[in-house]
Design a protein that fits this description.
Structural class: mainly beta
Oligomer: single chain
Number of strands: 6
Radius of gyration: 15 Å
Number of domains: 1
Strand order of the largest sheet: 1-6-5-4-3-2
Distance between the termini: 22 Å
């Protein structure tokens, strides 16, 4: 499923905080990494066709290991441009394929 753009009044913080359980009780594991992506420059002053490289922190949520393997459940993308903010949220199905993606405007 392609990414969907969430409404401007959707709170990424509320979406994220309400969705992350206590790791001690849930058995979930979280891994942080960094990712750089070449994207169109969407700033108002940018010239048409300009591209930028944006940095993101990724927080990946894994299920408790079963049969020796953990499964990726969700990936939170935090934009590092001006302030750290939740920029995207991805959910994955039982086969590890992207099930849903949402980009937060902001």
């Amino acid at each position: 499923m392609p990414f969907q753009t969430c409404a401007r009044n959707t709170s990424p913080k509320r979406c994220m905080l309400s969705g992350i359980p206590d790791t001690a009780q849930s058995g979930l594991t979280y891994v942080r990494s960094e990712f750089y992506q070449d994207e169109p420059d969407n700033r108002p002053q940018a010239k048409s066709g300009t591209r930028v490289v944006r940095g993101y922190y990724l927080l990946e949520e894994f299920s408790p290991p079963t049969s020796g393997e953990a499964r990726l459940l969700r990936r939170f993308w935090f934009d590092r441009l001006a302030a750290i903010r939740l920029a995207r949220l991805q959910s994955f199905d039982n086969q590890g394929l992207l099930d849903y993606g949402c980009c937060f405007l902001g």
